[in-house]
Amino acid sequence: MKLAYHVVDVFTTTPLEGNALAVFPNVTDLDSATMQRIARELNLSETTFVLPGESTPEATRVRIFTPAAELPFAGHPTIGTAYVLRRLEMVPRAAQHFVLSENVGPVAIRVEAGDDPILWLTTPPIRKLGELGRERYARALSLEPERLVPGVPCEIHSAGNPIAFIAVRDVAAVDAARVDSALLLDLLRGTKYPVCLFVFAPTERGAYSRMFAPLLGVPEDPATGSATGPLAAFMMKHGLVSDADGTRFISEQGVKMGRCSILHVLINGKRGERAIEVGGNVVHVAEATMHL
User: How far apart are CA 67 and CA 83, in angstroms?
Assistant: First the structure.
């Protein structure tokens, strides 16, 4: 069996920055276990598989895998797969709106005008799942509790994947974060979620961020679109960013890894009927064939 695939860098305009993604755009007769093994083989944060046989005229079916698990939703795989579908004209390049069908459900895509447009996804419904002891989770990131933003709790929010948000005072504290794997595993035994840890500092541009997901086989993620909508909701809730309709800001992630990623956020609608879009640019870096 020969499987064509593409590699793109997402949330960047510069090759070899952003978050790398492998996209298999035409998959048939491939079982879930093999998809998982392929994702483990490529060892990127995520790999996606487009299934034309399960697609409809209204939505293109996509499955998303980390090296260790299948995900219901993820941001950079959604944006990167949308880019590849347009590049291959599996979705008309003139289309400004289309839909990807993921395990979380339908995910709307919007394409800005221009030669190198930002692609936007509408974040699925966001739920707060609980609160955690912020000092204990700070220590799991090897941070002293006094480096946290005063009065802001550590909360788990999810748009498909549970993320624990930890707000710290400054960029230096974000860069100082280092996962204590033994302590984190001990803490997670007390929760029912395979929680990813998202540490960030509010900035003039929005946020400076890092994300750690060791239980998903991702020691650190260069860009986490599935966390960025919940990040916006968390920041608005705690007064760390404006919650006005039309607010736009960025989350800068992956810098410490040498893979600078710029994730754009747009707040649409008034309080109570709000939609959060997450967008970014994409660069095509390779196409190849896998032989199985």
Answer: 22
Active-site option among 17, 46, 102, 155:
46
Domain identity same for 9 and 102: yes
The pTM (predicted TM-score) of the whole model is 0.94
DSSP state of 168: B
- Tell me the CATH number at 244: 3.10.310.10
Calpha distance 187→26 (Å, rounded): 41
Over its length of 292 residues, how does the chain's per-residue pLDDT go in tens digits? 999 999 999 999 999 999 999 999 999 989 999 999 999 999 999 999 999 999 999 999 999 999 999 999 999 999 999 999 999 999 998 899 999 999 999 999 999 988 889 999 999 999 999 888 888 888 889 999 999 999 999 999 999 989 999 999 999 999 999 988 888 777 777 677 667 899 999 999 999 999 998 877 888 999 999 999 999 999 999 999 998 899 999 999 999 999 999 999 999 987 767 899 999 999 999 999 999 9
Give yes or no for a contact between 21 and 45, defined as CB atoms under 8 angstroms apart.
yes
User: Which domain covers residue 206, as residue numbers?
Assistant: 127-275
Tell the residue number behind the tokens 């960030």, with chain if given.
200
Q: Is 46 annotated in the active site?
A: yes
Residues 267 and 217 in one domain: yes
Q: How many domains does the chain have?
A: 2
275: left (phi over 0), alpha (psi -120 to 50) or beta: beta
